[in-house]
Write a structure and sequence with these properties.
With about 100 residues, this protein is mainly beta. Helix content is about 10%, strand content about 30%. The chain has a five-stranded mixed beta sheet, with no helix packed on it. The protein is globular and about 40 Å long.
């Protein structure tokens, strides 16, 4: 999840933001155009490399379009941490062939 309040615009196309699973947090830096669906407080997939200082430099950032569809273990972790949105039920995650 993109941690709320952490999105910073460093240059015209460079940003940084934190990604968290509510147990650990990693700072991500990315140069490029963020997807239209990218939002703080939403799920994101970032591909890239960890830097020696523990930050993450992303080559690709993908925004998740619907948080209701997620792996069962992620839904369970969110519920256990108290971060689950009430009234939402996780739908089974089916990996595309």
């Amino acid at each position: 999840m993109v941690e709320k309040g952490t999105l910073k615009h460093i240059g015209p196309t460079t940003v940084s933001f934190n990604v968290t699973d509510y147990a650990r947090t990693v700072t991500v830096s990315y140069t490029g155009i963020l997807p239209d669906l990218f939002r703080e407080g939403q799920g994101v997939v970032a591909e890239g490399m960890m830097t020696p200082d523990g930050a993450f430099t992303a080559d690709t950032v993908l925004a998740k379009h619907d948080e209701k569809y997620m792996p069962p273990e992620v839904a369970a972790a969110l519920k256990k941490s108290g971060r689950w949105q009430e009234g939402e039920e996780a739908q089974p995650y089916v990996k595309a062939p």
